[in-house]
Amino acid sequence: MILALALVLAAPAPPAHPHPHPHPHPAKDLRQLAQQHGIKIGTAVDIAALRDEPDYRQRLNREFTHVTAENAMKWESVEPERGVYTWDDADALVENARRNHQQIRGHTLLWHNQLPAWLTSGVEDGTIDATELREILREHITTQVRRYKGKIRAWDVVNEVVEEDGSLRQSIWLQHLGPGYIADAFRWAHRADPHAKLFINDYNLEWNAPKIETTLSIVKDLKAQGVPIHGIGFQGHLGIQYDYPADWANVMRRFADLGLEVAITELDVRMVLPVTPEKLATQAEYYRRALTDCLSVRACREMTVWGFTDRHSWVPGWFEGEGAATLLDENLAPKPAYKALLAVRGRK
Ligand code: XIL
Strands 40-45 and 66-69, how do they pair? Predict the structure, then answer.
């Protein structure tokens, strides 16, 4: 009897259900905030930091219900030499996620950046022809998706395939395989893991009209052909020196109306340094609005930030003179943006 009672008391609490109404208490951290709103809140993960920095690791696992490998699942990371796969980093992320009840976004199967040199140089010098290139892509997608079958909730199947002017990006994929490579990539990924949600992902899609219209028509075309595409990823790399993309929720809705799940996949809000209290306040407002926009669209199920601490963010390395783009400072202390997110109440 006492044993039975002890067992009952020790049983884990039932999973929280999405809460459609404003919640009475402010959340204490992002994990609780995600539960209150019935969405997933994720972050990109820096594998070296996960391995070497206990405070980073603890914070990551406490706050987040979803993770994306910042670099570890990109082609140059997993197949640096032809036919030689290096899964250690990707596996470490997947294993850490499993232990901490985090779902995973796989990023990314096809991109024009961070390709291994053997591939780009082979295409350039003609030793890899179009037929072989198509086979290499099929093999890559199949191998990677199959390896993590059942473990990755959603894949960014194609990344950044549209240019700013709305034309298809002049990547090696378009140049050598023609526009049909996009449908092929989705079909191959689906065959390798029929349960994974398959996304098309891009930046500036929050506001850039030509990009938005082309991406919508790509999605419509794919759907009309019966190609398995399930989601649209808005990277969401914002900066406070630009206006907040005020129409973002409407854009999300246009994709949702095509039957897609919506995700913010790489949110960060950079600023021109130095940091000032005013800039941090503006940044907080951008983060708050991004979450609010996601919550205002039923189909928006995930908001992922591209790093959660200014200690590890791609911004200073990529945007000269800019930085401080994340929710926590270098010492993992919450910035105004973090507090602003916790204060956001239920779905409208
Ligand atoms: C970035 C990483 O954060 C950097 O560490 C890396 O050097 C370059 O790539 N859009 C994407 C991401 O889809 O994969 C990019 O990540 C940021 C822009």
Answer: parallel
